[in-house]
Amino acid sequence: MEAMTTGEAAVVLGVTQREARRLAQTGDLLVAGTVGRALLLDSASVHRAAGTTARHGRPWNQQTAWAAINLLNGGKATWLGESERSRLKSRLIRRTTAEELNWLARRRAKTSTYRASTSYLTDVQRALVASGVADTGRTDVDFGLAPRRDHAEGYTDAAGVASVVDYYELVPDPTGNVTIHETSCVAGLRMGSSAALTAVDLAGSLDTRERSAGLRVLRELLRSIGAQA
Fold first, then answer.
1. Running DSSP on this structure, what letter comes out for residue 188?
2. How far is CA 38 from CA 4, 5, 10, 19, in A?
3. Across the strands, what pairs with 115?
4. Mean of the pLDDT values across residues 44-72?
5. Residues 193/130, Cβ–Cβ less than 8 Å
6. Around Cβ 203, how many Cβ atoms within 10 Å?
7. Whole-number pLDDT of residue 55
8. Are 104 and 96 in contact (CB under 8 A)?
């Protein structure tokens, strides 16, 4: 994993160092490690963000991102007002590509990676709303990827993160075997696991096969919602 400092990342992205650090805190950029007090960022995630930011515009807030995911799954996103929901659905149908959706929904959660004892992995996974590499064995959609049993991934809220980290003695590790997405959108968590959520997470992966699978399923879901309009 090649890394760069927040200063170098800021130059690539055309933002301040403070903004680069904020993007790392929200999970928009992948943290590769630290050297002393200096934060190191994964170069691939920085360049990927640089290539999509200008093209796709400002990411949605959490409520809107989760609403879009819910609509792709055939839901009604009832936590949005009727007019806002109608505009969002129209955008998904008429002019949103899978790549754009991946960018626009990227602030749906703050992502952190931890290391857990392998004996705890199954229990950690049960404590989360499964997604990403842990949820590719779904029966409703074929991702073409076997679920990774050596890695737990999913969503919870801030209290859930604190509880899981403490109870299962998780240690922060950028290359760890547990990926936790923390969201404040309670309505999103109540949706549970879904094909669209897993697809969005995979589409943001730095692994080529995972990213391709996620984008492919997102395209299928976008075509499906368009056909139903």
1. H
2. 10, 7, 14, 15
3. 171
4. 81
5. yes
6. 25
7. 55
8. yes
How does residue 175 score in pLDDT terms, banded at 50, 70 and 90?
Answer: confident
Q: Which amino acid is at 50?
A: A
| Rounded Cα distance, 20 and 36, in Å | 18
Cα separation values, 218 from 156, 213, 215, 222, Å? 22, 9, 5, 6
d(CA 7, CA 25) in angstroms, rounded, equals: 15
Strand arrangement of the beta sheet that strand 31-35 belongs to:
3-5, 38-42, 31-35
Residues contacting 29, CB < 8 A, separation 6+: 9, 20, 23, 41, 42, 45, 46, 49
The interaxial angle of helices 62-72 and 82-95, nearest 10 deg, is 60
| Each residue's pLDDT tens digit, 127-162 | 999 999 999 999 899 999 999 999 999 999 999 999
pTM, rounded to two decimals? 0.82
* C-alpha to C-alpha distance for 215 and 229, rounded to whole angstroms: 21
Q: Is the pLDDT of residue 56 over 60?
A: no
Beta-ladder partners of 39: 34
- Tell me the sheet residues that pair with 66: none
Residue 221: what pLDDT? 95
The pLDDT of residue 103 is 86
Backbone dihedral angles phi then psi of residue 223, each to the nearest 5 degrees: -65, -40
**Residue recorded with tokens 């999509």:** 52
